Each structure stands twice: as C-alpha cells, then as structure tokens.
C-alpha cells in the first residue's frame, strides 16, 4: 500500500474524555476537513463501548504514534484549554511552528494554552459552540453525527436541567434535530439500566452521603472504597443527584491506586471547576472531575473542606479571627513556668518568644506536663519546644491556617506582622469557627479520627499466599470473638516499602491472650502467654512466631524506666510506639480486611523518607529509641527529622543514657551491628555524641573507620557463603572498637555493657589468641608456609576471631589465606580412625593422636587423598613408631 498522506492538522480533547469532548471533536472536524482526530481515551466504560462501536467506524481517528509529527502545523483542542490535561499530545508542543486553535466552554486557568484562535462561550456544552459555527457556515451533518453531537449536549447540560444551560444549547439541539438526531438512541444511553455492581455502589454512596452546611450552602459528600476501577462513576453521581434532589455533590471513589472525584453543582456559590482544578483535574462551574494519586480519602476530604470554606466565603482572613493579645512564654523561662501559664489560662500550647517579641518556637501543654513529671521542669522551655513551626500574616486567608493545622498537625499558628507576634489561631479556634456540630469537622481536626486507606490489593500482591491466608484467619477469629484485630508495626511498614518480612505482630482490641489461644487451636500452634503484659506468642508447627498483644498504653514512672501497662485503644497502643513509620496498622477482620489505619502520618513519613518521633519526650522516656532511630535511618536510607534530631541531642545533653542499664544498651547495639549498614550507624552515633555518652572509651577516631569498614566487608562476604555456623556479629565489631585497648579498658566496657560471662570469656580469650596468631600468620606468609601450618595457626580461633583476623590483615595474600581456611581447610576431615590404627598393632595412647594429626597434615597439604592412601600413610607412621614393617589393615 502507498504511504498515507501526512496530516497537517490534529484535533484532540482532554484526558478522561466525556461525551461532550467526543462530540465536540467530531463536530469541529467538519470545520477542519482532512484533519486527524486523536482521542485520549476515557475511564467511562459506556463511552468507551459506544465510541468503539460507532465513532471508530465513522470518523478519521488516529493514534499519535502513527502520524508524521513533523508534518503537523495546527493543533485544534476542544473542551479544555489546560495543557496539563493534554499529556497524550505533549510531543506536538515541541514543534517550533505549531499553531493552536481552542474551542471551549470552560474559563481560562493558570496553565491555559496560548492560542492564535480562542473560541470561548460560557454555554452548557462545548459541542453547542461548535454546532453554532456549523450552522453559521451552512454546513450539514449526517444523522449519526447529529446523534453523537446531541449526546454531548444532553450529557453536559444534564438533559437541559443544569443551571449552566443556555438558550444556545437548546438552539444547537434544535438544529441537530433537523439534521436527524435520534432521540431514542440518546434516551437509551442516558437512561440505561444500572448493572448489579453499579446498583451496589450507588447504594453505598447513598448510605455514606452526609450533608455539611458551609457558610449557608448545603454540600453533600459521598464516598466509596473499591478494589479496582469501576466505570460510569460520573453516571452514578448524576443518578444520586437526581434521586436525592441534591444541589451540590462531591462523590469520592477510591479505586485501585487512585481516587476519583466527581463534582456537580446547581448553585452559583460553589464553582466545582475551581475545586477540581486544585486537585489537578478540571471542568466548569457546574460539572468537574479529578483523578488523584498518593492521597487517602480522608486527606482528600480534609483538603476539600478547606477549599470549600475558603472559596464559598473567600473574604475570611486571619486578622478577623485571630486571638489577641497573645499569652506567651519567654525563651529563658523554664518548662514548669510554661506549664503553670498554660494551666492558669486553660491553653493547650504557647508561643515561645525571644529578642523582644520574635517567635522562636511553640511549647505544647502535653509535652510540658510530661517533662515536669519526669523531673525536667527546671530545663529551659527551648529544650522541648517545637522549633520547626509554620506561621501566617494578618492578611492571609484561613485556607493557609487550615493547611498548617490539618496538614502539619500544628496545634497553634502564630500570626506575625513583620517579625512581631500580634495574634494566634489555635486548633480549637478553627473548630469553633468552621462548624456547629462535630459531624462537619474535617477528620484531621478530631484527635480520635484515623486516616484510612484500602490497601487490600497491595497486600494480596506483595505478601506470600500463606501469609495472606494466616492474616485472613486471624481476622475471621477476631470477628468470631467480636474483637478487632490488626497487623501492626514493622510488618506493615516493610510491606509498604516492598521489603520481605514475615515477623507478624498482631494487636487485639480486647483480650489478646484469649484471642491467641483461639487462633493457636486453629493453627495447631503452641501458645506462650505473658499475663503481666497481656501478650502471647504463637509458635507455629514450622517454627514461625506470631506476637499477639492486647491494645495497651504504656507509661513511664521516671526517665528510662520499664513501662507500666494499662488496657487502652488501638490509637493509644500505636501512640506508645517509637516512630511514626511504625504506627501503621492493617485491619484484618471482615469486611474491613486490608484497610490501612494511620493516626500519626506514618504513610507520609514513609513517602518522604523521614524518621520522626511522636512526642517531644519520647527519648527521655526510652533512650534506646535513639539507637533504633539511627538503625532505621541507615537501613532504609531515610533521614532523621530536624525536630527529632534536636531531641536526640537534648537527651544526650541530659545524660539520659547514664540511667539505662548496660544490658538494654548492649541489646540495641547488637541489633544495630546485625542490621544492613552498621558502620554508617556507628559513625552517626559517634558524630551525635552517643557512643561516648554510653562510655567515653567507645568514641573511636576516624583512623579506626578503615578497620570497621573492612569488618563490614568481611561479614558481608561470610554471609554470602550461607554456612550453617553464624558468628556473633556484635562481638566482631566490638573487637574492632576495642582494637588497641588494654585489658583494663576492655573490662571497663564489658562491665558497663553487662556482657554475659560467656561473652566476656569469648572476648578475652580471643584477644589473647589474636596476639599470637598475628605473629604466627606474618611468619607463615614470610616463609611461604604450608596449608597444614596455616591450619595449626588458625584452628584455635573462634569464628568471630577468624573474621576479625581476616579484616585486620593488610596484606592481600594473608587475607586470602584466612579466607581459604574458612572456606576449605576448616572443613577438611580424614578417613582414618582410631580403630584402624589399633588394627596396626599399636596400643591406644598419645601415639594415636600423633598419627591422626600427621595424616590430617598430609591431607591438608595434598600429599594423600583416598582412604587407601591415608591408611598407607598411617601404617608407615605406625611402623616407624614400632620399628618394624607396616602391617596391612583390612
């Protein structure tokens, strides 16, 4: 076939096109004969089906990849003017001489295209605008074309019922009727029966619909959570509006990996096009939509509320609602003084000021009270204030305040005039201002509200089937016992990060031990309860362990104390945890299986790669969290947040580690050494002053980093051998840390860290042997010693001593020698036994051992291999000892 004639004109519309966009493309093609129509696709299944069955046969639709882009001179865009909604034709915008013509009924936005021809009318449908042009030019259309164009007008005007409908839309439809527009086809498509699935979704939307009166305007918000995308969500929105006689509706559908927002308005006060544009979508004042990624339904609703409060009454500015004059505390004052001021005035937070009236931070009442309770009331308030805070000016609108309180969870927002503090707006102020009843409060403003997101599909994709089945069984067991069951902590965190982890922790809002016993019977598992802490461990037949805890609250009587446990809720159980990334929970009970619960912003911190504590006294209550923070930071390549790092430095300054038992510190150091990046973690601890805070001798100079780095390489190498014998990695690093120390210094460290007696003996004996081994190994290398000599030198060492010795060697040939011993020589055995030697006529005694040792040396040196060769060698040795000819042994 001859090549197709290149097209110099391309017609297109916005992504996720509706009937009006399709109809407008077909209509405008009559004004640009010979143009190629590039359709971006749609998520509305009915439109897709109709388009495939009808439009593809009738019109000149092409794929952009099939066109010669260099030949294109003109791009005609209908039903949008936003470049962000035209990603499918993005390559055309790079053409140097491209002209653009626009036909649209949506007003201009910030990312509107520059066009040489811009046809804009505020009519009900873009198709009506183009039909008017066809009528002016006395052009005609076929009945099929007229029907498709009429379908676009009918949809975008809501059957001529939307307030956006104009007389021009009626006139366009009347003209199309004269061209043969088939009303039966339009009626069938616009009012077709719903499928069973659609009816179920519509029912859920109706059940979830809530009305919120915002500055005198009733707003209905409905939501639904689905595993996958479901077509015709816009159709269901139309149906819901008609059935319930709703004037403003926002329908939110969580579908797969994104949230679909469809909005409709019949009132002038609410411009849904502006609202959806803020979410990256588009539309006009009365009908709009957006496709939103990387946010939960609750986050979308919170932002939606903030937008509506700002847009419906945009004259609401900070000056009119701030509290003034401001109660404040000076930076030089103490925590106890701040607590007293807050109690006196009934405040939840105070701005901290310095240099006259410049705000330097915010101190919260809950933090101050805890600090006083821990005996830290005399500390300066600056030690526990929030340094990284947000502020507003008097002329800003309340939307900025809402963003700070909702998005950043900042309880109090200072209002500044220049650098001067002139007012504050608190979380309580915002609640009182926004609503008259709790049902209308954005969810992030309520302390007991949780952020939820359905991640069932992610769970099914990323977890092995046996783990999924186990979690489902746990959820079913909880449902039978009428208790809520959640998977929590590191298991959830690692699943979201795509890291394998079968270390399952469950939390039960009820009797955790009773639940564990019930689940254990179903799994055939042994159950070990711990009555004091209301926890249990399930040990499955294959050896896997599942930890079960009763939702509980831990509180600390004094800094670094062990926790005291009380029954509590899931939220309080999660609040006791160390970092926000470990506070996520997954609901396991039907019908909520797979719902992710996020009270403390853990999802966002995982996305941002931040390690963040939940409150300012976290490290004071449990200093071991500092080591864990560093371990997680290095493992995940995250960053400790600025406020969290400041709290670490403050805890070090207060000598909090001195209150910790050596055993707890040693346990955390062992975990750190066994993690994925121990050297970086040790260096981070040193640079923060933590190692020397544990004990001054632990502070290692940069000159020792090379040895520790080599230890890390050697341990990584050994792990890749997959040998059965596993070393105590912490001991290997400890040998590196105490390299060059005398015996008394090492004893001081093992005493501070409460090493068990066996580990003390391992360290001391290994250090004694290392001095001898180092000299012998150097001599062996100098003299070119045999494999048997190498075996004799290294065999007395423990595995930890061998790995340390290998790392310590500077000469490559000696490093290879230790490697050869670990991979080959230490496994060498002999095929001659004591019974064989007895048959040679020797009586048992020291000579037996000498003969066996000689045979092994011969095997190590490659002098003998088979059993027969070894027996001959042993007979010669026996004969020499007896002074006679060797005897044969059968």
UniProtKB/TrEMBL annotation:
Stored InterPro entries: CBS_dom, CBS_dom_sf, DDH_dom, DHH_sf, NT_sf, PolA_pol_head_dom, PolyA_RNA-bd, tRNA_nt/polyA_polymerase
GO molecular function, a single term: hydrolase activity
Record CDD domains: CBS_pair_DHH_polyA_Pol_assoc (cd17772), NT_ClassII-CCAase (cd05398)
Pfam entry (one): CBS
Keywords: CBS domain, Hydrolase, Magnesium, Metal-binding, Nucleotide-binding, Nucleotidyltransferase, RNA-binding, Transferase, tRNA processing, tRNA-binding
Cofactor: Mg(2+)
EC number: 2.7.7.72, 3.1.3.-, 3.1.4.-
Domain CBS: 322-379, 385-443
Family: Belongs to the tRNA nucleotidyltransferase/poly(A) polymerase family.
Full protein name: tRNA nucleotidyltransferase (CCA-adding enzyme)
Organism: Desulfomicrobium macestii
């Amino acid at each position: 076939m001859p090549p197709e004639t290149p097209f110099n004109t391309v017609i297109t519309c916005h992504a996720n096109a509706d009937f009006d966009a399709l109809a407008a493309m077909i209509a405008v093609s009559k004004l640009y004969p010979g143009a190629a129509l590039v359709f971006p696709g749609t998520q509305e299944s009915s439109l897709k089906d109709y388009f495939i069955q009808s439009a593809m046969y009738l019109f000149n639709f092409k794929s952009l990849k099939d066109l010669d882009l260099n030949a294109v001179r003109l791009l005609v865009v209908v039903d949008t003017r936003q470049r962000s909604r035209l990603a499918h034709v993005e390559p055309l915008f790079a053409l140097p001489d491209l002209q653009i013509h626009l036909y649209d009924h949506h007003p201009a936005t910030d990312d509107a295209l520059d066009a040489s021809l811009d046809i804009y009318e505020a009519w009900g449908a873009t198709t009506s605008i183009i039909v008017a042009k066809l009528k002016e030019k006395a052009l005609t259309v076929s009945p099929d074309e007229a029907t498709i164009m009429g379908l676009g007008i009918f949809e975008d005007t809501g059957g001529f019922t939307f307030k956006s409908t104009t007389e021009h839309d009626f006139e366009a439809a009347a003209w199309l009727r004269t061209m043969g527009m088939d009303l039966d086809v339009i009626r069938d498509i616009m009012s077709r029966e719903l499928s069973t699935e659609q009816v179920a979704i519509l029912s859920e939307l109706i059940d979830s619909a809530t009305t919120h009166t915002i500055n005198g305007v009733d707003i209905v918000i409905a939501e639904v959570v689905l595993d996958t995308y479901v077509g015709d969500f816009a159709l269901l929105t139309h149906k819901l509006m008609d059935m319930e006689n709703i004037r403003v509706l926002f329908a939110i559908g969580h579908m797969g990996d994104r949230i679909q927002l469809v909005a409709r308005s019949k009132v002038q006060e609410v411009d849904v096009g502006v609202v959806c544009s803020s979410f990256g979508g588009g539309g006009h004042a009365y009908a709009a939509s957006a496709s939103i990624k990387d946010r939960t339904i609750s986050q979308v609703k919170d932002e939606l509320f903030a937008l509506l409060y700002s847009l419906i009454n945009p004259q609401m500015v900070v000056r009119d609602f701030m509290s003034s004059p401001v109660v404040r505390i000076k930076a030089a004052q103490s925590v106890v003084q701040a607590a007293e001021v807050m109690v006196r005035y009934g405040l939840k937070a105070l701005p901290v000021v310095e240099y006259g009236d410049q705000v330097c931070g915010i101190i919260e009442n809950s933090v101050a009270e805890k600090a006083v309770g821990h005996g830290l009331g005399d500390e300066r308030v600056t030690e526990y204030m929030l340094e990284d805070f947000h502020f507003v000016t008097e002329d800003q609108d309340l939307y900025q305040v809402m963003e700070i309180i909702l998005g950043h969870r900042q309880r109090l927002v200072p209002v500044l005039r220049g650098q001067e503090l002139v007012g504050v707006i608190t979380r309580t102020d915002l609640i009182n201002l926004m609503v008259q009843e709790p049902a209308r409060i954005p969810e992030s403003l309520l302390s007991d509200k949780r952020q939820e997101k359905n991640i069932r599909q992610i769970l099914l994709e990323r977890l092995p089937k046996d783990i999924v089945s186990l979690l489902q069984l746990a959820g079913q067991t909880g449902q039978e016992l009428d208790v809520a069951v959640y998977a929590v902590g590191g298991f959830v965190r690692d699943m979201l990060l795509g890291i394998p982890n079968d270390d399952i922790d469950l939390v039960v809002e009820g009797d955790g031990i009773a639940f564990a016993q019930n689940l254990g019977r179903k799994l055939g598992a042994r159950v070990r309860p711990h009555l004091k802490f209301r926890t249990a461990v399930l040990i499955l037949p294959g050896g896997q362990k599942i930890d079960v805890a009763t939702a509980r609250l831990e509180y600390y009587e004094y800094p670094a104390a062990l926790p005291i446990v009380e029954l509590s809720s899931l939220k309080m159980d999660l609040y006791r945890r160390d970092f926000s990334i470990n506070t996520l929970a997954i609901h396991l009970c039907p019908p909520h299986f797979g719902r992710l619960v996020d009270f403390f912003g853990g999802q966002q911190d995982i996305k941002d790669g931040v390690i963040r504590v939940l409150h300012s006294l976290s490290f004071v209550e449990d200093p071991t969290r500092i080591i864990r923070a560093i371990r997680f930071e290095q493992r995940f390549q995250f960053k400790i947040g600025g406020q969290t790092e400041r709290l670490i430095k403050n805890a070090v300054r207060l000598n909090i580690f001195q209150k910790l038992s050596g055993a707890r510190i040693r346990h955390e150091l062992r975990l750190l050494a066994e993690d994925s990046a121990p050297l970086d973690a040790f260096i981070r601890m040193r640079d923060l002053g933590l190692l020397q805070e544990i004990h001054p001798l632990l502070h290692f100079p940069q000159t020792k980093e090379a040895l520790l780095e080599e230890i890390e390489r050697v341990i990584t190498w050994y792990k890749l051998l997959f040998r059965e014998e596993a070393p105590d990695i912490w001991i290997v690093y400890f040998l590196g840390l105490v390299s060059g120390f005398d015996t008394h210094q090492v004893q001081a460290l093992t005493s501070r860290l409460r090493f068990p007696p066996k580990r003390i003996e391992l360290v001391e004996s290994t250090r004694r042997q290392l001095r001898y081994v180092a000299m012998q190994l150097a001599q062996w290398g100098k003299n070119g010693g045999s494999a048997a000599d190498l075996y004799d030198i290294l065999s007395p060492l423990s595995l930890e001593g061998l790995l340390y010795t290998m790392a310590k060697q500077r000469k490559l040939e000696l490093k290879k020698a230790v490697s050869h011993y670990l991979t080959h020589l230490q496994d060498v055995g002999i095929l001659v036994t004591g019974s064989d030697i007895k048959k040679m006529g020797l009586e048992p005694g020291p000579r037996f051992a000498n003969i066996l040792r000689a045979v092994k040396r011969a095997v190590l040196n490659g002098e003998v291999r088979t059993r027969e060769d070894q027996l001959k060698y042993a007979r010669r040795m026996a004969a020499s000892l007896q002074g006679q000819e060797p005897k044969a042994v059968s």
